[in-house]
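Protein Record: Sequence and Backbone Structure Tokens
======================================================
Scope: a single protein chain, as residues and as a discrete description of its fold.
Tokens: labelled as protein backbone structure tokens, with as many entries as the chain has residues.
Position: the record begins directly beneath this header, with no further notes in between.
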Amino acid sequence: MITVTEDRFRLAQTFTISRGSKTEARVLTTSITRGGMTGRGECVPYARYGETQDSVRGQIESLPDGITRADLQTALPPGAARNAVDCALWDLEAKRSGQRVWSLAGLPPPGPVVTAFTLSLAPPDAMRAAAATHAHRPILKIKLGTPDDMPRLEAVRAGAPASRIIVDANEGWTPEVYTDLAPYLLRLGVELVEQPLPAGQDGMLAEMPRPVPVCADESCHDRTSLSALWGKYDVVNLKLDKTGGLTEALATRDLARQMGFRVMVGCMVGSSLAMAPAVLLAQGAAMGADWTDLDGPLLLAEDRDHPLHYDAAGVHPSDANLWG
């Protein structure tokens, strides 16, 4: 039996990117029960990709109760619906077999992974204060994406002089803004820039200097999207809600590596249940992630039971009571 419920988690504070603000995480939780055991998966329907709570719920509820993980890959397209079901099936398989998902997937035993912490878009003074509050964190990810981002960059660097910095423009820059900012990104120690130009309008990146590695986020979904990114991007950001689950994410990660891309593992704003499978995807710099951004639960005021554990070593793999 497949069931879908909507869950809401209050955010610790308003979260703002160039496309808007939110005060809660609205997620869909998929539960699949077979043989007296239940597996769970979580997804975040995302309007940027034409998804709504109702459309994603409808996709999930259209599936037959006995759907297998193999059949799922063609039954639904990449996206949030397939992600929730795919992860629920992995969790169910782990429970029924008595093995952890990493073992079933042929992955090495997982450990903690250092993750970025995201600072939402705000006036420079507020971003400097937020950076100072979180200056103990090893990596800060800054939400930008306006024509007036230079003061924000300067403010964050002043507030957290020792932190590594990632910048995420969320498609908010023009080629002119990116060209103007690029030298300053290097001077301020920014080590990665996510999606500076809108997806579908990013062809100029192939002709522009990239002094800081540029990462495809909105332009990258599953394996089929990778060939169009070559020459424009240096890094791909893999999110389970884009790939359509852990199964495709693992395959996309491996192909991206073979093609010469570096890898970032990211997330939507969701609970620990959504992050748990992605922690496995991020394991090991050699074949896992060069950068990890799985801070969703750190942005919440409330979380699932048996939440992921975060400490100085990073985000730890999930307890089996949560997932996998």
